[in-house]
Design brief:
mainly alpha, 371 residues, 3% strand, 16 helices, two-stranded parallel ribbon, 4 strands
Length: 371
């Protein structure tokens, strides 16, 4: 992939403004508030006297758990704090210990697998929902018989129900990944052993120990409710970034070598208020995250105007909409799968007259945008 002078200038400007240094105090407060809400919700659920109170407690712990998950996403990209080891520790805490999801599987699937090739069908593991769901017209056409009928008529109705099992699916995939890595001398590392140990700690703390104090079915029931609710919450935050129709899908043979175009055209933002920003930890700024994955999410509101100006100068489409519309468009793709975009260059928009797409003074020009 080719990075042009304007993108390089923007990277330099982001660093000049100090946005590569995470705000330690704010990050500590954010994580502490998420953990307090998640644990407080569990305690409230256990102590709640009635169904309505328990439902409110479940919402409370789900909100906190989602906050931990999105915060951990930043840590998995080594952007939550300055220390690389502490970012890894936070990833093991937020994903492996709290969620039961393998951190090494996440690094393999999302950080190394998804980010270089977002929405590239055949390469992006995050865009592969087969055989359960088809996101593209090509997947539908390649199916036959009952499977094709399911894709065309039923998958949009089935999808909402499957989200309740999403967390369990990711837990199973992560465990299989860790065990297969440990069984292979050429792949296993200290990280995989740590991952397995923290997974064992997760099962002990969240399932085994509570059974000494509560009925086993009650413990399993609460665990399942938390996991199911978290599945819906995670998709509500992560889905709008790549699933809507305007976040195009491309094939592995798509010819464009323009890094900016490939990242931005396949990705989308959504807008939210301060509460949503606290909850999403930058995932509402999916475009900025893909261009600057190692920049802390606290700075994305400041980075975004510069990215939009960059896209305007390069004629690159920049998609954003309100969160509610983004959710509807996320769901709509199950009823109307996308076509593969054969040539991203066809998506370019006209550069406004008199606005240079690039210039020798690109860094200076960008420096004065949204100052």
């Amino acid at each position: 992939m080719v990075e042009d002078s304007l993108l390089r200038a923007l990277r330099a400007e982001v660093r000049r403004r100090g946005w590569h240094r995470p705000p330690a105090g704010r990050m500590a407060v954010e994580l502490a508030s998420h953990v307090a809400l998640a644990l407080g919700g569990i305690a409230a659920f256990v102590a709640a006297p009635g169904l309505l109170a328990r439902a409110c407690a479940l919402v409370m712990t789900t909100v906190g758990s989602l906050g931990i998950t999105t915060f951990t996403h930043t840590a998995s990209h080594y952007a939550a704090v300055r220390s690389r080891r502490l970012n890894e520790l936070l990833t093991y805490f937020g994903y492996t210990f709290f969620w039961g999801e393998s951190a090494t599987y996440w690094w393999h699937k999302h950080v190394a697998g998804h980010h270089p090739v977002p929405n590239v069908i055949g390469s992006d593991p995050d865009a592969d929902l087969s055989p359960w769901f088809a996101l593209t017209e090509g997947e539908v056409r390649a199916s036959r018989g009952l499977l094709r009928f399911y894709y065309e008529r039923l998958q949009c109705w089935v999808f909402p129900f499957t989200l309740a099992g999403m967390v369990f699916g990711m837990q199973g995939a992560g465990l299989r990944f860790v065990l297969s890595a440990l069984a292979d001398p050429s792949r296993r590392s200290r990280r995989h052993w740590i991952d397995l140990g923290v997974l064992a700690l997760h099962w002990t703390v969240w399932l085994v120990l509570p059974m000494f104090f509560f009925q086993p079915l009650a413990v399993l029931g609460l665990y399942a409710l938390r996991a199911a609710a978290l599945g819906y919450a995670v998709v509500a935050v992560a889905g709008p970034g790549h699933l809507p129709l305007y976040a195009v899908c491309i094939g592995v043979d798509e010819p464009s070598e323009d890094y900016l175009l490939r990242q931005v055209a396949t990705t989308a933002n959504f807008t939210t208020g301060w509460l949503g920003r606290w909850l999403c930890s930058g995932l509402e700024y999916q475009i900025e995250h893909h261009l600057f994955p190692q920049v802390n999410h606290a700075y994305y509101p400041q980075v975004s105007p510069l990215v939009q100006e960059l896209c305007r100068r390069r004629g690159v489409p920049f998609h954003t909409c309100s969160w509610d519309r983004a959710l509807w468009r996320t769901y709509s793709v199950l009823a109307t799968p996308k076509r593969l975009e054969p040539d991203l260059e066809a998506l370019r928009q006209p550069v406004p007259e008199g606005l240079a797409a690039s210039s020798p003074d690109a860094a200076v020009e960008l420096r004065h945008q949204s100052a």
